[in-house]
Specification:
Layout (H helix, E strand, L loop, with lengths): L1 E4 L7 H14 L6 E4 L2 H10 L6 E2 L2 E2 L3 H22 L2 E4 L7 E5 L8 E6 L1 H9 L3 E5 L1 E3 L5 E3 L2 H12 L3 E5 L17 E3 H10 L6 H14 L4 E5 L5 H6 L5 E4 L1
Parallel strand pairs: 1-2, 1-11, 2-8, 5-8, 11-13, 12-14
Antiparallel strand pairs: 3-4, 6-7, 9-10, 13-14
Helix pairs in contact: 2-3, 5-7
Length: about 250
């Protein structure tokens, strides 16, 4: 199981450790790869250095100066998460060229699009009973770091391994009538998801998560689930298909 973890689900140390405990518990039943972002941590580090943040279509505009801070913040968080989970190793895209990418758009600076995943490295670690914890910094064609959207990176890892994925977010899943939680869709086919975006009931910040889930399906993941990382016990329930919204081909 691939688990994408980040955003509001890691805003506090208490919540982060609760999720780490659930990841450790899930690992008792099946191998797990964790792919994480770190928006709140990155924001804090950039603000401390007087570097402003700008987003375009959900992607952080990343100058060379900002990229250094992003990589530093994610590296530190990466090791902390691995320690919290236990039996895990923190990795970044530079490690054995785990994640390679190409620049996404010159206007976004050092933001990348994944072109390759070193799946053999992940399989080797999983085979040894070690949980890989992957931070979303990739290596570009020039050997320098590129900032990668965590949802996109997680989808690429899921596709490369051909395994299912859970995207942890701050809502219980995809709502047919947002923000009514009783309208949560337990399952969505690809076509239903595309129709939801076209009709407008999948909107705002949910669109990139649904797109990342569909991208994971395109790359070979059998299914993808969007669920809340703010609810205790959600990982096991989502893995069983009992929580969140499961998207299928």
């Amino acid at each position: 199981m691939i688990v994408k973890y980040g955003g509001n689900a890691m805003k506090s140390l208490e919540l982060r450790r609760a999720v780490a405990a659930e990841l450790a518990a899930l690992r008792q039943h099946l191998p797990v790869v964790v792919v994480h972002g770190g928006g709140p941590v990155i924001e804090g580090e950039l603000a401390a250095r007087g570097i402003s943040s700008e987003f375009r279509n959900g992607l952080r505009v990343t100058s060379a100066e900002a990229m250094d801070v992003v990589e530093m913040a994610l590296c530190q968080l990466n090791k902390q998460l691995a320690q919290d989970i236990g039996g895990a190793v923190g990795l970044m895209g530079r490690d054995c060229l785990l994640l390679t990418a190409e620049p996404f758009d010159p206007a976004l600076g050092r933001v990348g699009r994944i072109t390759g995943v070193n799946a053999d490295l992940l399989r080797t670690l999983l085979g040894a009973g070690i949980t890989p914890v992957v931070g979303c910094v990739a290596v570009g064609p020039d050997g320098n770091a590129l900032n990668i959207n965590a949802d996109t990176a997680a989808g690429a890892v899921a596709g490369a391994l051909g395994e299912s994925i859970i995207f942890l977010t701050d809502v219980d899943g995809v709502y047919r009538n947002y923000p009514d939680p009783t309208s949560r869709a337990a399952t969505l086919s690809r076509q239903e998801a595309e129709d939801g975006v076209s009709a407008g009931w999948i909107a705002g910040g949910m669109i990139p998560k649904v797109r990342a889930a569909l991208d994971a399906l395109d790359r070979g993941a059998p299914h993808a689930t969007i669920a809340s990382g703010m609810v205790a016990g959600v990982l096991g329930a989502a893995a069983r298909g009992e929580a969140g919204t499961r998207l299928t081909p």
